[in-house]
Amino acid sequence: MERVAPEPDLGFGVLESRMLLDRVHERLALFLHHLLRHAGRLLRWAVRASTLVPLAGCEDRLSAVHPAGPAAQTIATLWWVLLGGATLIFLFVMVLLALAMRRRDAPGQASGERVWIVGLGLAFPLTVLAALLAYGLVVGERLLPRPGPGVVDVGAEGRQWDWHFTYADAPGRMTEGVLHIPAGRPVDVAITSADVIHSFWVPRLAGKLDAIPGHVNVLRIEAWVPGDYAGVSSEYNGPGYTGHDFTVRAHDEAAWADFLAGEAP
């Protein structure tokens, strides 16, 4: 009779696994203890390090957080507020996670856990998100173009692969690739398209808005000071998309009057 090989003893393996998990949990708890102990110092260094990359792009010609007009300023403020709210929720969740990793199970703990989960895990994020949503709606309402004194009307027509601009104060005048506006005055841009959907965006002056064939969307822009501001078509629309950019040129009062009179800009 052939001798059957004995089955392996799994008990020792299970015990080893439990001991390993206990050691991992112990090391993790020790790590979290040191992390919380020096949280302030680590947070300061993390904030300093994390700002190096974003700050490098803040002065870029297409930077939405380097505003040059009131609409862009409002959008940049909204961006920072949303970032702050998201950071607040993230840090709060990380603190809860660290506390959960450090705590041991104890009798009668279920009721306390419900308070943490419902009161803080749900109520706190929902409150912050609701506040951010309300603020975003108010900001969006402020950005809508409204009739008022001194508003300049221009037209922008997207094409593959250029932009044509017309001017209500200079009938028959058309420029290609460069939109001329007066500095310090609100400008309503009536945006449309001659072929496919494009997207009109001058990050330092305003938000982006689609150019749709057969439809006109109006975007309010304004530049605080004279200068050139880069614009792009921010929606992919074919192989020439990467070169589909334009310039917004803001003039002082004298240069704007000369432009309307037909003089070369």
TrEMBL record:
Organism: Rubellimicrobium roseum
Subcellular location, record wording: Membrane
Bilayer topology: Multi-pass membrane protein
Keyword Electron transport: yes
Transmembrane regions: 78-99, 115-138
Cytochrome oxidase subunit II copper A binding domain: residues covered: 149-262
UniProt keyword Plastid present: no
Database matches in InterPro entries: CcO_II (IPR045187), CcO_II-like_C (IPR002429), Cupredoxin (IPR008972), Cyt_c_oxidase_su2_TM_sf (IPR036257)
Catalyzed reactions per annotation: 4 Fe(II)-[cytochrome c] + O2 + 8 H(+)(in) = 4 Fe(III)-[cytochrome c] + 2 H2O + 4 H(+)(out)
Protein name in the entry: Cytochrome B
Family affiliation: Belongs to the cytochrome c oxidase subunit 2 family.
An example molecular function term from Gene Ontology annotations: copper ion binding
GO biological process: ATP synthesis coupled electron transport
GO cellular component, one term: membrane
Keywords: Electron transport, Membrane, Transmembrane, Transmembrane helix, Transport
